[in-house]
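Sample 3 of the quickstart, ligand alpha-D-galactopyranuronic acid:
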Amino acid sequence: MQRLFSEHAVRSVRSLDGIWQITAHDGRETSLPAGVPGIWDRIPALASFRGTAEYARKVRLSRDGGVLLRFGGVSHTARVFWDGAKVGGHYNAFTGFEILLPKVNKGEHALVVEVDDSYSVRSTLHVPNDYMTYGGMNRPVELHEVGDGYIERMTFYAREAENGSFTAYVRVYVKALRALPAASLAVSLAGSETVCTVPGLAPGASASVEVCLPVSDVRRWDIRQGNLYELKACLRTGETEIDDLIDRVGFRTVRIEGEDILLNGKKVRVKGFNRHEDHGQFGCALPPEAMLDDLQRVLDMGGNSIRTCHYPNDPRFLDLCDELGILVWEENHARAIPKKIFHSKLFARQSAACNEEMITQHVNHPSIFVWGLLNECESDTQFGRGVYAAQIAQLRALDPTRPISFATCKHFADICLDLADIASFNIYPGWYTGDSTADFIARLFRWADENGARNKPILISEIGAGAIAGFHDPVRHVKWSEERQCDILRDQLLSVHQSPRCSGTYIWQFADGKVSDDWAVHRPKSMNNKGIMDQYRNPKMSYMTVREIYTQLESWNSTAAGET
Ligand code: ADA
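Result:
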C-alpha cells in the first residue's frame, strides 16, 4: 500500500501491487512478468532498455460504482488505459497521481499503464543527470471504490498558544460523483472531535470545510521522538457512513529566529545525509523494509535529517521519518537543469506541477521541516531570479508554515539568497577544490552575509568526497581511496560544525548511486561514488568516521544549552 498505515476504515481499498505483464516496445515486443512496484532495469532482457513499455493486468470489481486508480509513482511518464480507453496520464516519477472513473460496471476489466522513461523534449525534469532515471512503476498502485461522494484529501496544521497548548486546523476536501445531499463530516484528533455540515453538491462538484480542534496534553513530535496522532474524517449522509480518510500528524513548531532554526523552540543542529531513492537491488523502487534499514543506519551514525535530493520522496519513507523522528528537507524535482530547458515554458509547467503535487500530497508529514527547490539551477541570473521568486511564492502559497531554501553552487555569484528563509550551499572543499574547509567557509559565509543571507540560518546542503568502495591506500591515501574520503570528510565536518554561523550539514551522499549514461564518463563504475556506503549499503571506512563525528556532536549539543 502507499502508506505505512491504513488510510481508510470505511472506504474499500485494494492493492494492485504484485506481478503484472510488461511488454516493451524494444523492437522485439519483449513480454515478461514484472513486479510492481519495480523497475524494468532489473529484468535482464530489459536491463538497458530505455523507451516505452506497457504494464498490463486484469481487475475484477464486485459491484458497479466509482473507482479511483491511485498511482504512487510511475517513472517517468504514464498513460493509463481502462478497457482500452485512455483515462489519464502523468509526468514525473516522484509524485503520485490518481484517476477517477465515475461509473464502472462490476466484472473483469483491463488495466494498462504505458510507461515511458526516455529522455526527450517532452521531459524537462527527468534529464540525463548525475542520478539515474529508471523505467517502471516505482511506487505502489491502489484501487479505491467510492460512492456518491468521497473525501479527496485533508490538510492539517497546528498553532501553539502561549501556554504551550495546541489548536489544530484541518481543512477537508470533499468531491461529489453523483448529486450529494447535505452531509455531516466528523473530524477527530487526539481525543477531540467536531462535526460540521458539508453542503449538498451537484455531480462533479467539490467543496472544502475547515474545522478547528483544541487539543491538550499532546506529546510533541521532535528529533528521535516520533509522536504521532491519528487524524480521522468521516462523511455521513443520514446515519450512513459513505466515506472516510485517516492520516497521521504530529504537533511541533518550526521557526526561524535570526541565524537559528528552532524546532519546538530549541536550536537545531542538522546532522544530515543526502539520500537518492536508489539501491543496487531495487533501483528507485525500494520496499519499506529497505527504507527502514537506511534510516536505522542514519540513526546509527548519529544523523537526524535527510535531504530528499533531488525530488519528492515516497510517502512511506516520509511515514518512517515521521515515526523515527528524523527531520526531512524535501525538495522539488530539479538538479542543475540545463539553461535551454530551464528557460522553457514546459519546464515552468512541469516544475510548478511538481511543486503543487509535492506539497498537497506531503504537507501533513511532521518530519518535513524545510521545502527545497531547484537544486543548483540558474540562481545567478536575473532570469533565474524570476523563476526562483515565482516558485518560492508558489511554495509559500501552498504552505505558509514551513521555511523555504534552495541549494546553490553559485558561490560568490548567487543573486537569490535574499528570497529564501535559509541560505544553503553545496561545497566540496578538499575534493573539487584544494581549499581547506575552514578558509573556504569563512570567505563564503562573509560573502553570503553581504549578499542576502544576513540574519538568516546557513546550511551546508552538500559536502563530501568520493571513494571507490573497497579501494584502499593506507600509505598515500590517494584520491578515490576510502582512506582519503575519511580524511576529507573529517576536515569538512569538523570545520563546518565548529562554525557558529552554520546550522549543520547534509553529507553528499548516504550511499553510492547510479548515474545516467551521459554522466558515466565522469563517474567510475557509472556511479556517483561519494556514498558513505556502496549501493548495497556495505559501509565504507567513512561510515565510522561520520559516526564518530556526528555522534560526538550529539554530546556537544547536549552540553550546549538548548541545542538538539
Ligand atoms: C552537486 C549536485 C549533486 C551531485 C554532486 C556531486 O552538488 O547537487 O547532485 O551531483 O554535485 O557529486 O558532484
